[in-house]
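subagent[fold] <- orchestrator: predict structure for attached chain, return tokens only, no commentary.
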Amino acid sequence: MSKRVSIEVPGLGHDNPIPAASRKGPILISSTIAGKDMATGKVVDGIEAQCAHMFANMLAILKAGGATAEDIVKFTVWLKDRSNRPYVNQHWMELFPDPHSRPARHTFAAPDLAEPMLVQCEIMAVID
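subagent[fold] -> orchestrator:
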């Protein structure tokens, strides 16, 4: 049986002692992924920029874990304001243009996200 491996990406650390993701065998599950600038480790301003960085950070985590967006089976999103869903959908449609091959997705309202965070996500992937 394979051992669990912590996946780390420079600039995407958390305040708590948790990795960016964890992989065991073909399964990779992320911790929360925010719209941080990897160069500074800081959350960027504005929902558009946060969504762009969040998706880029998600791809960096997948790559570090030996996966791609094609391996994602579940995508969970938390939005401070659910009216910002179109910004998530824009990147979602770019990353997953085929409506017959998209991960499951669940979006939650999260008005208590720590400032200045407006959006965050987590993913589950099964790596072939």
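orchestrator: received. Logging for downstream: Residues 12 and 41 are 6 Å apart (CA to CA). The chain has one domain: 5-126.
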